[in-house]
């Protein structure tokens, strides 16, 4: 029986890291280590000497992993996956999910597949949550700006909240602009006049 | 006829300018190209985007395609350089604490004398020096190593050169993870503005005409798509010519600063394009002519000798047989395709594809198609000359 595969997951966010680790554990018995520190990333990974490194494709710290390709002998050299196998479904799924894997040369095929399947599923979830979170945040920020614009109109014209909102919406429609853009313009112009 | 869509990749640095300008000012449109510019979060990500064909061409660190031809690095894909995007544009900086020690020892931060700056750095560094660079295959690494090795002074016992993503460079310096850095602008100026760092040298003080970024494609693409390759190269060359006009620098700064591009104040980018850098947070300005060059002196010509120099350095460091490595490196810089596709545009095409790297200390006329080629100074700080015909000397 082959030895347990060791996997390093590079992820700063604790919650996200836990999600990925949980997914991997469901897929099999692996020796998993999470590295959340960006400081000395290459050194930390080299110390663990893992079979596989998983990292978010959008993480700028990916470049630090390239140092690892210089440090070791060719057969122990981690290589970025998915580059030469662009036709497989798994590769496509991984790219879409935004997961980058570094695999030690010589470790290929069936042993990696279940890990990547699990990683892809979890990265998908993580990314979906991230997108949702940023959409919620933007919606909240938009609402704040619209509230400020309403307040400006209410004070300047001595009108109620509903009327102010109606006025703002009508102005936006008349000019073919989004409500939020109209509100932003009003807030900015008012700041300038102060 | 509708324009042909073409996806290009870049990293948010000042030397992405030729691609951004080619798109924004219509140079690509004139060639019937509809560019989509895709930012990449890291050089490894950009390399993979290019390898997988998500983008057909990309701004790339000049040593990266050479490393790929030598089988170095974490990707098996092969790339080549169709043209050079810019000469120079890197800065070397030190932490505020290290700068203070260097000042206390009498160093004046002239931002030009590489030997004096290097000796002052070693004297103040003590027994260890940790230097951050953006990528293991980069002109940054080559310049730092060439410089430290050529000072003629024993380096400190522990020199550690490690990769730090450029957006984190200022933070890493402030947190004491590194003592110094070599990075592409505007990341050095960002470190200055945050108070974390002081600029020590422009890259051009080490090598006055270093090929910094190239327009890279997968090996073989330009031959498979000669028409597209030619249109792209001409559009990028015209963008470089536009960027080379001093009058255009202010507008270029605004274009680059825009949201979705570099997302930094235009004032900061203008400092870089005009070569008038603030070296410390207190505001001392140093002027560096040729700090970054996008056009003049056939800056875009991919000299085989530049690739040979890079190949020789990489071979030396990674224990490769130097002559085959140099031969493989030379093939990566496609001076042949540059000649093919830029003839008739007004671009100066040099009479030769090799030059003695490091032999010019003043602007010097050279043979070319139109006879108006003036090569810029390309001196190394230690006055060594690299002869591509005798590369091991």
Q: Taking all residues together, what is the mean pLDDT of chain B?
A: 93
Number of individual domains of chain B: 2
- SSE series of chain A: EHEHEHHEHEHHH
CATH superfamily descriptor of the largest domain in chain B: Periplasmic binding protein-like II
Query: β content of chain A, as a range?
Result: 5-15%
Strand order of the largest sheet of chain B: 2-1-3-10-4-13
Question: What is CATH's topology name of the largest domain in chain A?
Answer: D-Maltodextrin-Binding Protein, domain 2
- Termini of chain B, distance in Å? 55 Å
- Could you tell me which chain pair has the largest interface and how many residues each side has? A-B, 30 and 30 residues
Q: How large, in whole angstroms, is the Cα Rg of chain B?
A: 20 Å
- Per CATH, the architecture of the largest domain in chain A is 3-Layer(aba) Sandwich
For the CA atoms, what is the radius of gyration of chain A? 25 Å
CATH architecture of the largest domain in chain B: 3-Layer(aba) Sandwich
Rounded average pLDDT of chain A: 80
CATH level 3 topology of the largest domain in chain B: D-Maltodextrin-Binding Protein, domain 2
Descriptive report:
The complex is a heterodimer of chains A (194) and B (393). By secondary structure, chain A is α/β, with parallel strands linked by helices. Chain A folds into two domains: 6-131, D-Maltodextrin-Binding Protein, domain 2 (3-Layer(aba) Sandwich), CATH 3.40.190; 135-193, Orthogonal Bundle (Arc Repressor Mutant, subunit A), CATH 1.10.10. Helices cover 58% and strands 12% of the residues of chain A. Chain A has helices at residues 14-27, 41-48, 62-65, 68-71, 89-97, 113-157, 161-174, 179-193, and strands at residues 6-10, 31-35, 52-56, 78-80, 99-104. In chain A, helix 1 links the parallel strand 1 and strand 2 (31-35). With 393 residues, chain B is of the alpha/beta class. Chain B folds into two domains: 4-86 and 211-259 and 294-350, Periplasmic binding protein-like II (D-Maltodextrin-Binding Protein, domain 2), CATH 3.40.190; 90-209 and 272-293, 3-Layer(aba) Sandwich (D-Maltodextrin-Binding Protein, domain 2), CATH 3.40.190. Chain B has helices at residues 17-24, 27-30, 43-52, 63-69, 96-104, 114-125, 139-149, 169-174, 187-193, 221-224, 226-243, 249-257, 266-274, 304-318, 322-332, 335-342; strands at 4-10, 33-39, 57-61, 79-88, 90-95, 128-133, 158-163, 180-184, 197-202, 211-218, 276-278, 285-287, 292-293, 364-365, 374-375. Chain B has a six-stranded mixed sheet, sandwiched between helices. The longest helix of chain B is centred in the middle third of the chain and has 18 residues, at 226-243. Chain B is globular, with a radius of gyration of 20 Å. Chain B starts with a strand and ends in an 18-residue tail after the last strand. The A-B interface holds A 38-40, 42-43, 57-70, 77-80, 82-84, 86, 95, 100, 102 and B 41-45, 48, 51-53, 72-77, 134-137, 162-168, 172, 175, 177, 318.
